[in-house]
């Protein structure tokens, strides 16, 4: 499948294997392919079941830990058929493993020897694991306040952990300022993360068809955009007869998508960053997320701390332990149902993105709320 890296802003194109983490004009790059082929590999249950649909550098061999192929749990909620996609069952405990696998596969094929990433935790842990599997040196910059379990993962996988005072934005500045000869393998900027997350849509389509709606948390936007792209391609190339409405979820502590979508600030901002996985201050693909929401006929739900806590409790009573970011989908689905944006009898796909085992201390504090 011939593919290039293309800038949607200025139109520049680069080879797929070019070591460019963004366009020369400063915009994030996208993968552009001449065709799309949905040809699942029979008998393989992993993201690489859809290898024919993934953009790969010439002669690249998958760096895989068995990511993808996650189970789906169907529950009845408020008259809706809700399908929780258990992405926290990926090898390092989050959906980020899909993007890490594809990105590191292509970086290894491009002979990258060292990479740098900044992350609030899950992406750093994931990229550390896949870098180790690929034999690539890795440095991860995290806020000092990141969950202990995620920072421990990073160190155990063999990466050099750099804890940064000052929050998520400062971690990014430090990472870029101390690159040296390493490649900046940011999950926020990598065009391979949305491409890998499209396999979530492919898996769901094979097992359940096309949902009426998708409800997913948005931090960098890689998950949301990937699921959107997956269902869009299946429809445009004639594999499915419909597409879902895409509903983004953000927390009241970082509702930056609200202003981008509605052109006005969110009024009830909360000071406490409850859902750290979506505390991304300046996601480079924000405009792409806005476009995908509008194009799909979806929307945005901003949830507060109380809703997130109730989401955690609701899922826990069903035997599902997730981190606070994942729990945001539950109050979001409730709000959408109450406002009539999803109707009784409709199907809703809701990815649960990260394991609660990584954030037990934070969850314990929240349950006291």
Automatic annotation (TrEMBL):
Residues 63-354 form the Tryptophan synthase beta chain-like PALP domain. Its cofactor is pyridoxal 5'-phosphate. GO terms for molecular function: L-serine ammonia-lyase activity; threonine deaminase activity. The keyword DNA-binding does not apply. One of its GO terms (biological process) is L-serine catabolic process. Keywords: Lyase, Pyridoxal phosphate. The keyword Zinc does not apply. Pfam families: PALP. Signal peptide: none annotated. Transmembrane segments: none annotated. This is Pyridoxal-phosphate dependent enzyme. It comes from Infirmifilum lucidum.
């Amino acid at each position: 499948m011939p593919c290039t890296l293309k800038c949607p802003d200025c139109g520049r194109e680069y080879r797929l294997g070019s070591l460019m983490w963004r366009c020369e004009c400063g915009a994030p790059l996208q993968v552009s392919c001449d065709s799309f082929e949905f040809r699942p590999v029979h008998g393989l249950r992993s993201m690489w079941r859809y290898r024919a649909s993934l953009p790969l550098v010439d002669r690249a061999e998958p760096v895989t830990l068995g990511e993808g192929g996650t189970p789906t749990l169907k529950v009845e909620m408020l008259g809706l058929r809700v399908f929780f996609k258990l992405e926290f069952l990926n090898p390092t405990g989050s959906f980020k493993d899909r993007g890490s696998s594809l990105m590191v596969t292509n970086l290894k094929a491009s002979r990258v020897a060292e990479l740098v990433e900044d992350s609030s935790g899950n992406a750093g842990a994931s990229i550390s694991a896949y870098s180790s599997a690929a034999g690539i040196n890795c440095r991860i910059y995290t806020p000092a306040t990141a969950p202990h379990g995620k920072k421990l993962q990073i160190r155990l996988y063999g990466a050099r952990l750099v804890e940064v005072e000052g929050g998520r934005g400062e971690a990014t500045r430090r990472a870029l300022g101390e690159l040296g000869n390493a490649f900046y393998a940011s999950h926020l900027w990598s065009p391979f993360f949305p491409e890998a997350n499209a396999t979530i849509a492919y898996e769901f389509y094979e097992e359940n068809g096309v949902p009426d709606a998708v409800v997913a948390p948005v931090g960098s936007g890689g998950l949301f955009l990937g699921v959107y792209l997956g269902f869009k391609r299946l429809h445009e190339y004639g594999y499915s007869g419909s597409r879902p409405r895409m509903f983004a979820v953000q927390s009241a502590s970082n509702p930056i998508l609200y202003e981008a979508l509605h052109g006005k600030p969110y009024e009830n901002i909360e000071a406490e960053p409850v859902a750290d996985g979506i505390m991304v201050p300046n996601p480079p693909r924000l405009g792409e997320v806005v476009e995908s929401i509008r194009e799909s006929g979806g929307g945005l739900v901003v949830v507060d701390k109380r809703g997130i806590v109730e989401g955690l409790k609701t899922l826990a009573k069903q035997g599902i332990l997730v981190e606070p970011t994942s729990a945001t989908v539950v109050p979001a689905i409730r709000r959408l149902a109450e406002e009539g944006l999803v109707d009784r009898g409709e199907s809703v796909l809701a990815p649960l993105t990260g394991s609660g085992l990584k954030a037990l201390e934070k969850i314990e504090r929240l349950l006291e709320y």
